[in-house]
Amino acid sequence: MGKRKADDTPVPHSGIKKHKKRPTGKVDRCSAISRNQFKTIDSLFEEVEAILRSPSISALPNPAIPLLKKIPDLFGKKTQRPRLDVKQGGRTGKVEEGDRIAMYSLFVTPRRLVPSRSFSYSSQWDSYASEDTEYAPPAPEPSVQGDLRIIKIIDCGEEAMYCQFNKRGTLLAVGLISGVIKVYMVSEGSCVHMLSDSESVDASLPVTSLRFYPQSSSSTGDLLLATYASGLVKFWHLSTQTCLQTISEDRQILTGTFNPSGTCFLTAGSSNDIHVYDTETKERINTCRPSQSLTIMNGHRSRIFTITFHPQIENCFISGSWDNTVQFWDVNSQHSLRKIFGPHICGDALKFHPTTNQLLTGSWRKHQSLQIWDPDSGEVIQEIPDDFRGHSRIYSCHWLDSEHILAAGSEAHMCRVIDRTTLMSTGCLLNLAGGVYSTDVTSVGPSGPLIAVTSRSNVYLLQRPNK
């Protein structure tokens, strides 16, 4: 007999034998995310990145926010969800808590939503545990291996975007995602200054770079240059916690720095221009930019994330960008003097060696992420391989000394010290809750040379053993 309808009337077979689907087995939640949702995420990022490259920066948030609102729940409940205010067409609009990770990631750097080690660990446990399981085992705690030890862990209370030691190594300034700057006493790990005003609070956008004035004396106190994703440039006097002067640019500012003598400072960001200012008058004295001809690449064609001055030549500096070039400039010229093709710079990852002038670059990509270059020939001298524990897309790197390099980033969520001779990691900070967006190094201080590493809301102060 065939199948029956509801009134028990026989229904003839169609003649085609139907097979039941075979069970596919259990798929954990991380696998399901990667198979079913990453295509959606990639398409959203392509749309948002197209908006980011739009020349109309002022209109940027309006078309991007609807796209960002599609993203937050794609990675489940484990994703942190802070809050952010953004400007929409002249008025302040509230973005839902789940949007903030996507918001600052896209508008400041291309930091995609990659599940951290702790998220993957708990997700994998959840997929195999029964519904009656009340508690899952905790994610691994951050730890160090090799020639590193943790001196202090400072909880900043919110996402730390940038950190910078002062010249004497006694203070550490940390720029936060809300636009607030906290200054900590290194020896005690206590917050001694909090820098914010009505402009930075109202904008509520991240601090993108910090630089202490190189010639500050103890009589005048420390002076701090801060740049913000809102387009603000501020000079802060630490001891009085006052803003001495504010410059506003019609773009997102992603980096700023002084020349070695402190007579001028530079800013760069979401446009192709690098502005040069006189430190004393705060007046713009030059703008370094590419020529209008698209057949000549004598400047950047995309966002600029870092600027570094030559250690011996006062007026010469280099810059790194999304456009896969490092450009060489003079502060008095309009166009770049020459370039190196290759590095994909997305953070403070472009450093001159203090004595040999060799160039260290960190790229936010899967391959060739850490390289050493001859700045004169533009050729790669050395490729630094990945650590065996996992690959890192580099946001920040430094020369520690002539034989050691510091590098950190996302994906593997770790910071490592690398021996240049053996190309092996001699020390690692592991199991961090999120990517490392900023690091800094001081060779002096109350407890000797120190390394500062930011990850989520924490700053880790590390020390290498004296040898």
UniProtKB/TrEMBL annotation:
UniProt KW Hydrolase keyword: no
Keywords for the protein's UniProt record, in alphabetical order: Repeat, WD repeat
Pfam families: WD40
InterPro entries xrefs: WD40/YVTN_repeat-like_dom_sf, WD40_repeat_dom_sf, WD40_rpt
Chain positions of WD repeats: 297-339
PANTHER family in alphabetical order: CARBOHYDRATE BINDING DOMAIN CONTAINING PROTEIN (PTHR47822), F-BOX AND WD-40 DOMAIN PROTEIN 7 (PTHR47822:SF2)
Protein name per UniProt: Uncharacterized protein
